[in-house]
Amino acid sequence: MKQFTIKITCKDEKGLVYRISEILLENGLNIIKNDEFVDNEKSQFFMRTEVAGIAEPEKVIEQLKKQLDDCSIELSQNQSKNVVVLVTKEHHCLGDLLIRNQFKDLNFNILAVIGNYENLRELTEKFNIPFTYIPAENITREEHEEKIKTVLQNYNYDYLVLAKFMRILSPDFVKDFEGKIINIHHSFLPAFIGANPYKQAFERGVKIIGATAHFVTNDLDEGPIIYQDIIKVSHSKTAKDLAKMGKDVERIVLANALKLVFEDKVFIDGNKTIIFE
Description:
Elements: E1 2-11, H1 16-26, E2 29-39, E3 44-53, H2 57-67, E4 72-77, E5 81-87, H3 92-102, E6 108-115, H4 121-125, E7 131-133, H5 141-152, E8 159-162, H6 171-176, E9 181-185, H7 197-204, E10 208-215, E11 225-232, H8 239-262, E12 266-269, E13 272-275
Parallel strand pairs: 5-6, 5-8, 6-7, 8-9
Antiparallel strand pairs: 1-3, 1-4, 2-3, 9-10, 10-11, 12-13
Helix pairs in contact: 1-2, 3-8, 7-8
């Protein structure tokens, strides 16, 4: 008996759940858990179903597509996702992910880490994970990204995770990995975008700070949001205090976002997400 997760997006109409369930039954699949949502404005139907049984995934998808108009269907076996992590200099998010990977706290396997600085090599290799240094100096952004793509060809990965990778990706790179790049942003979007967010927050006297995990698109820091969180602060906190507190939020937000994605609970719908928690 294998367990699968089926994600379906299609035009809403009467009898969808019945027709879908009938096909699953015909293929010997037992429904373990089911979630549905209808966007009434768009008349769009979303369904996430966990099933168990012995079935041919291609056959199930083919039968579902014959029954559903203008649909998107994903069927995946419930197993760990493979990821490659991209980093620059900051260690807090990478360190958290390496520990979670070591103790299997998330449904993922870190295959490799790629950095545009050497700073995090020692940390990465302590966990017996390969680290590849690809410097960005004196070459174009496109040349740098081509070197990254060459390294990525060595790995069978599901997602790229930007764990404080502080470089703007080119449109071509983003297009090649559409829906597969997850970033952690250092503020509660859309406020304080750009450099020195904690200094901006300090100067504005904010009462909350936060972080946002999102899919990467060609609109800088405006991709579909997966998870956000905040903490309250007071006037007694300095900019350094905010930065330290912010790093804690970033770690938690990134981990929670990845948990949702790796458990196949996230649907990308245009520039927003539908999430079944």
